[in-house]
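I'd like us to work through together how a protein chain folds, taking it slowly. To get us started, please write out a protein record for me. Go ahead whenever you are ready, and we will take it from there:
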Amino acid sequence: MSDIRQIKPDELEKLIEKDAEIRVIDVREEEEVAQGMIPTAQHIPLGTIPETLQNLDPANEYVMVCRSGKRSMNASEYLMAHGFKNVHNLEGGMLKWNGELVF
Protein backbone atom coordinates (compact mmCIF):
# COMPACT_ATOMS: atom_id res chain seq x y z
CA MET A 1 0.00 0.00 0.00
CA SER A 2 1.30 3.41 -0.97
CA ASP A 3 1.86 6.27 1.46
CA ILE A 4 0.62 8.76 -1.13
CA ARG A 5 -2.38 10.74 0.04
CA GLN A 6 -5.43 10.61 -2.21
CA ILE A 7 -7.48 13.73 -2.81
CA LYS A 8 -11.08 13.51 -4.00
CA PRO A 9 -12.05 15.47 -7.13
CA ASP A 10 -14.52 17.68 -5.24
CA GLU A 11 -11.85 18.53 -2.64
CA LEU A 12 -9.43 19.56 -5.39
CA GLU A 13 -12.11 21.61 -7.11
CA LYS A 14 -12.73 23.55 -3.86
CA LEU A 15 -9.00 24.18 -3.42
CA ILE A 16 -8.74 25.51 -6.97
CA GLU A 17 -11.78 27.76 -6.44
CA LYS A 18 -10.13 29.20 -3.30
CA ASP A 19 -6.91 29.82 -5.24
CA ALA A 20 -5.03 27.56 -2.86
CA GLU A 21 -1.30 27.31 -3.37
CA ILE A 22 -1.56 23.86 -4.91
CA ARG A 23 -0.03 22.82 -8.21
CA VAL A 24 -1.86 20.34 -10.41
CA ILE A 25 0.33 18.25 -12.71
CA ASP A 26 -1.41 16.33 -15.51
CA VAL A 27 0.75 13.36 -16.54
CA ARG A 28 -1.47 12.15 -19.40
CA GLU A 29 -0.36 11.97 -23.01
CA GLU A 30 -0.91 14.81 -25.50
CA GLU A 31 -4.01 13.26 -27.12
CA GLU A 32 -5.64 12.75 -23.70
CA VAL A 33 -4.96 16.32 -22.60
CA ALA A 34 -6.56 17.56 -25.84
CA GLN A 35 -9.88 16.26 -24.42
CA GLY A 36 -9.65 18.78 -21.59
CA MET A 37 -7.59 19.54 -18.51
CA ILE A 38 -8.30 20.75 -15.01
CA PRO A 39 -7.99 24.56 -14.85
CA THR A 40 -4.55 25.64 -13.57
CA ALA A 41 -3.03 22.22 -14.40
CA GLN A 42 0.42 21.98 -15.90
CA HIS A 43 0.93 19.25 -18.50
CA ILE A 44 4.01 17.09 -17.92
CA PRO A 45 3.65 13.68 -19.62
CA LEU A 46 4.58 10.81 -17.29
CA GLY A 47 7.56 9.77 -19.41
CA THR A 48 9.14 13.22 -19.06
CA ILE A 49 8.83 13.53 -15.26
CA PRO A 50 12.46 12.46 -14.58
CA GLU A 51 13.90 15.10 -16.93
CA THR A 52 11.57 17.88 -15.74
CA LEU A 53 11.95 17.15 -12.04
CA GLN A 54 14.50 19.95 -11.60
CA ASN A 55 11.81 22.43 -12.73
CA LEU A 56 9.55 21.50 -9.81
CA ASP A 57 10.02 22.93 -6.32
CA PRO A 58 9.99 20.24 -3.59
CA ALA A 59 8.59 22.85 -1.17
CA ASN A 60 5.35 23.16 -3.16
CA GLU A 61 2.19 21.08 -2.77
CA TYR A 62 1.32 18.97 -5.82
CA VAL A 63 -1.67 16.97 -7.03
CA MET A 64 -0.83 14.47 -9.75
CA VAL A 65 -3.55 13.66 -12.30
CA CYS A 66 -4.04 11.09 -15.07
CA ARG A 67 -7.01 9.33 -16.67
CA SER A 68 -7.79 6.84 -13.88
CA GLY A 69 -5.27 7.51 -11.11
CA LYS A 70 -2.73 4.75 -11.79
CA ARG A 71 -0.10 6.67 -13.79
CA SER A 72 -0.45 9.68 -11.52
CA MET A 73 0.13 7.38 -8.53
CA ASN A 74 3.39 6.26 -10.16
CA ALA A 75 4.34 9.91 -10.71
CA SER A 76 3.44 10.73 -7.09
CA GLU A 77 5.60 7.90 -5.80
CA TYR A 78 8.47 9.05 -8.02
CA LEU A 79 8.28 12.59 -6.62
CA MET A 80 8.13 11.30 -3.04
CA ALA A 81 11.18 9.08 -3.70
CA HIS A 82 13.03 12.21 -4.86
CA GLY A 83 12.41 14.31 -1.76
CA PHE A 84 8.99 15.84 -2.42
CA LYS A 85 6.98 15.74 0.80
CA ASN A 86 3.59 17.21 -0.08
CA VAL A 87 2.27 15.14 -3.00
CA HIS A 88 -1.29 13.93 -3.56
CA ASN A 89 -2.89 11.71 -6.19
CA LEU A 90 -6.29 12.60 -7.66
CA GLU A 91 -8.53 9.72 -6.66
CA GLY A 92 -10.12 8.18 -9.76
CA GLY A 93 -8.29 10.58 -12.07
CA MET A 94 -10.05 12.48 -14.83
CA LEU A 95 -12.70 9.74 -15.04
CA LYS A 96 -14.07 11.07 -11.72
CA TRP A 97 -13.51 14.79 -12.39
CA ASN A 98 -16.83 16.62 -12.84
CA GLY A 99 -15.44 20.13 -12.62
CA GLU A 100 -14.57 22.68 -15.27
CA LEU A 101 -12.23 21.75 -18.11
CA VAL A 102 -9.93 23.90 -20.20
CA PHE A 103 -8.89 23.05 -23.74
